[in-house]
């Protein structure tokens, strides 16, 4: 291709891209490209297409390279974009192709921005789904089985016994020695139900007394019986009576 033909194509490109095109030399240009279909709130992305026209252009592809201006594009993505540009260029061999290459690059950037936005949306929806499932699992609780209930009941009973023991110990700290002895003495005469609530597992259900049943001191009953017998033995009857 003659230099005049290259200059002619450059004149057309300069009229189309007055701000985007930079002429580096007679055979080298750079054109900034952005997505032709930007997404509201999407990331900013801009690349520079570097074109070097060979002596055989347009019968051969120009040398193409890319530079990142705005946004982030990794090397793998850049290489994939270049491969597509070369494929488009091969389809236009024999014709001025720079405008077509830039147009395709803009389409590629639009596709890349949309793909990234869709991926972010998918990740956000997945996070929301996992958070919702976690909240539902937390509020729903663990299904109760016979084994899990027994384990819970045993742990609960132990906790209640320890709690009552700590409460009694705290209460005893504020009592005098005499009051503590009285507290312990009364504690020995707890009703069956109280003993059950305190964790006494040796009592049978049919021996439990209802709350409010008066405790009987057996030792007092025995002393009274002995005294009555002594009184009877001490009574003397006269024959004359």
Descriptive notes:
The protein is an alpha+beta fold and 241 residues long. It folds into two domains: 3-118, Ubiquitin Conjugating Enzyme, CATH 3.10.110.10; 146-213. The protein is built from seven helices and four strands; from the N terminus they run αββββαααααα. The chain has helices at residues 3-16, 75-91, 98-140, 146-173, 177-187, 192-197, 218-233, and strands at 21-23, 28-33, 46-52, 63-70. Strands 1-2-3-4 form a four-stranded antiparallel sheet, with helices on one face. The termini are far apart. It comes from Tricholomella constricta. It holds the Pfam family DFRP_C.
Any key phrases for this structure?
single chain, 241 residues, alpha+beta, Ubiquitin Conjugating Enzyme, 2 domains, 4-stranded antiparallel beta sheet, 4 strands, 10% strand, disordered C terminus
User: Mind telling me the C-alpha Rg?
Assistant: 49 Å
Mean pLDDT: 79
CATH class of the largest domain: Alpha Beta
How many structural domains? 2
Strand sequence of the main sheet, in spatial order? 1-2-3-4
Number of helices: 7
* Helical content class: 55-70%
Q: Hey, roughly how much beta strand do the residues contain?
A: 5-15%
Q: In total, how many beta strands?
A: 4
SSE sequence, one letter per element: HEEEEHHHHHH
Q: From the 3D structure, determine the CATH topology of the largest domain.
A: Ubiquitin Conjugating Enzyme
Largest sheet: 4 strands, antiparallel
| Separation, N- and C-terminal Cα atoms | 163 Å
Structural class computed from helices and strand pairing? alpha+beta
Categorize the overall geometry: rod-shaped
Low-confidence stretches: 200-219, 235-241
The fourth-level CATH homologous superfamily of the largest domain is: Ubiquitin Conjugating Enzyme
Organism: Tricholomella constricta
Domain RWD: 8-112
Biased composition (Basic and acidic residues): 116-132
Protein name: RWD domain-containing protein
């Amino acid at each position: 291709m003659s230099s005049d033909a290259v200059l002619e194509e450059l004149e057309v490109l300069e009229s189309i891209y007055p701000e985007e095109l930079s002429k580096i030399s007679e055979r080298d240009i750079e054109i900034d490209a952005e997505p032709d279909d930007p997404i509201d709130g999407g990331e900013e992305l801009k690349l520079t297409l570097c074109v070097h026209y060979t002596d055989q252009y347009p019968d051969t592809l120009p040398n193409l390279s890319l530079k990142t201006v705005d946004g982030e594009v990794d090397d793998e993505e850049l290489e994939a974009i270049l491969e597509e540009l070369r494929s488009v260029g091969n389809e236009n061999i024999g014709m001025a192709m720079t405008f077509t290459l830039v147009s395709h690059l803009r389409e590629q950037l639009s596709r890349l921005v949309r793909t990234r936005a869709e991926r972010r949306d998918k990740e956000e929806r997945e996070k929301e789904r996992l958070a919702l499932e976690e909240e539902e699992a937390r509020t729903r609780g663990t299904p109760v089985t016979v084994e899990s209930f027994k384990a819970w009941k045993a742990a609960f009973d132990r906790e209640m016994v320890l709690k009552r023991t700590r409460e009694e110990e705290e209460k005893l700290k504020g009592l005098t020695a005499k009051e503590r002895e009285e507290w312990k003495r009364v504690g020995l005469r707890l009703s069956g139900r109280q003993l059950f609530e305190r964790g006494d597992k040796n009592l049978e259900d049919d021996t439990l007394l209802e709350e409010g049943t008066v405790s009987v001191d057996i030792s007092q009953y025995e002393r009274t019986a002995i005294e009555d017998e002594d009184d009877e033995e001490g009574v003397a009857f006269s024959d004359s009576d």
